[in-house]
Amino acid sequence: MLVSLTLHQFALIDQHELSMAQGFNVITGETGAGKSLLLDALSLCAGERADSAMVRHGAAHADIYALFDVEDNDVVADWFARHDRVLDEPDVLIRRQLSRNGRSKAWLNGTPVSLAELKNLGALLVNIHSQHAQQALLKPQFVVQWLDAMAKATSLAAQTESSYQTYQQLKRQAEEIASREAQRQDRIQLLESQLADIAPLLAVDYTDIEAEHEELSNIEALMQEASHGLHLLDNDSDEPDVMTLLGQAIKLCDTQVGVSQTFEQASEQLHLAQQQITEVTGLLSDYAEQQLPDPERLQTLDSLISLGHHLSRKHNLPAADLIDEANSWQEQLEQLENEPSSDAMAAQIEQAWQEYLALATKLQKKREKAAPTVSKQLVKQLQPLALPNARCEFVFTKKTDTSQYNGQGCYDIDLLFSANVGMPMQPLHKIASGGELSRMALVMQVLQATSADNNTAKPMLVFDEVDVGISGGTAQVVGELLRELGQTQQLLAITHQAQVAAQAHQHILVQKHHDEKTESELLVLTGSTQVDELARMSGGVTITEVTRDHARSLLAGVK
Predict the structure, then answer these.
(1) What are phi and psi of 423, to 5 degrees?
(2) Considering only Cβ atoms within 10 Å of each terminal Cβ, which end of the chain, N or C, has fewer?
(3) What pLDDT, on a 0 to 100 scale, did the predictor assign at position 57?
(4) Residues 511, 501: contact at Cβ < 8 Å?
């Protein structure tokens, strides 16, 4: 329930705080006075997009505060829990700030909130019905959605729509796969061929292969060099070698160890060098005396090196990088091989289609079961609104071609209507007048609002221009209907009809003043001020005792 609405520098309003009654609140005023400002402010607090033109002229920004009582409102409490927000008070305060530069900010209980979150929460707090609702009646999907709401099949309808979209998405995927099937197969063959070509290189380390090939290609020369190095280090001839000279140096230093620490350190290092040279001579000896390698090994290396050079030129990559490229080819190949073919998707498509048909059939049965009762409810509410001969009926026509099935199901649904005795019922959009459409729209909105579970907290209902196309006694019935609705649910309505306004639990007047600066003022009317406003609405600019008496009679007739 909306407790209060505070406006600051908003459009024609400088500063005002308006308390809202629990039941039926009505807004009246001259044309152009700014009656829709309250609805605009509520819409902003419910997450609608802002317009910088709503900032009062000369002000930097506008602020709107909407305070809601959400005690025992499990729906709102659940929303807070799902969005990881704390609700430790029975009130929810929404603040919306509009800047002159076109930007806007929003806060929920003092904490910043995104516009998407605010819109989601706003739908739970406020339900705004546009003055153009009668135009919506001309759209077939509106009638279907309304019937689903009345039949409490909204959730099932959403599942059917989702199921149909899944089926359509699978069909599109299959068509796309089929269109590129030939390209896919060509790409698979190319990748398989490339991987087959490079397979010998994948089993070895190409860098090691290059090094081994370089060594084996020069093995005889390297063996000769090893022999020469071995001769320099240690030989049996009369030529001096390193081991002989090193032995002499060690003997020299050893004789002086007891005399000088330097000779002791030098002796230790020379003995180490002697050990290392001994190891080197062993290595060179083994290398120089080895058997020549198997010619087939060199041939194998030649083949691998040649393949590497060939593939390097072919793919314009260094041979060492071909391995990484091959890994990429392998990933592409696996991805293409794992991609379902159009034939493989046929089973998925058929399953999705059967799931959709099952949901659509279940939904249709629920609609057909509810339709007679809903039609009777419509007629019962329409007849007092100067439509005593109104008749309504839902007609279901199965679509002749399955290609015409859609997210709303397998049937075309029409709401047939007749307002006159002896006249056949026809689709609403073909025969209803503007006034009849207006009354139909109002009744449908009221029925939908009252069809919700009585144990569930209901959002505030807002009706913009509730009296379009009605007058006189019909307006009286509309007012009584809204007052009755206000006994169980808070609502706010803009009206031009005194008969409607007189039924309100709270009457709000919007006046425009032209002093130094044009400004709209909000007044809660009671007593004589309410009588004068109802008299103005009934009799025009000049208020007389006759029009006042008429206004008093309207108030006296309120039950």
Answers:
(1) -100, 135
(2) C
(3) 86
(4) no
34 CB neighbour count, 10 Å cutoff: 22
Other CB atoms within 10 A of residue 1 CB: 19
pLDDT in tens, 29-82: 888 778 888 888 999 999 988 888 889 988 889 999 999 999 888 889 999 999
Predicted local distance difference test score (pLDDT) of residue 335: 78
What sections of 463-510 are H helices per DSSP?
A: 472-486, 498-501
Highest mean pLDDT pick, 191-195, 314-318, 445-449, 475-479: 475-479
Strand order in the sheet with 506-514: 126-129, 460-463, 491-494, 24-29, 506-514, 518-525
Q: Is it the case that residue 313 has pLDDT exceeding 80? A: no
Position 4 pLDDT exceeds 70: yes
* Mean pLDDT confidence for 248-256: 87
What span, in angstroms and rounded, lies between the C-alpha atoms of 73 and 85? 15
In single-letter form, the type of residue at position 162 comes to S
DSSP conformation class of 52: G
Q: According to the 3-state scheme, what is the secondary structure of 261-306?
A: HHHHHHHHHHHHHHHHHHHHHHHHHHHHCCCCCCHHHHHHHHHHHH
Contacts 24+ apart (CB under 8 A), 214-220: 216/293, 216/297, 216/298, 216/301, 217/298, 219/292, 219/293, 220/292
- What whole-number percentage of the chain has pLDDT above 90? 34
Distant-in-sequence, close-in-space partners of 457: CB < 8 Å, separation ≥ 6? 70, 72, 73, 74, 75, 76
234: number of Cβ within 10 Å: 17
Q: Please give the Cα distance from 513 to 87 (Å, whole number).
A: 41
Provide the pairing of β-strand 111-112 with 104-108. antiparallel
pTM attached to this predicted model: 0.62
> Measured between alpha carbons, how far is 98 from 51 in angstroms, rounded to an integer?
8
- DSSP character at residue 410: S
Lookup result for tokens 């599109």: 172
Q: Compute how many other C-beta atoms are within 10 angstroms of the C-beta atom of residue 542.
A: 8
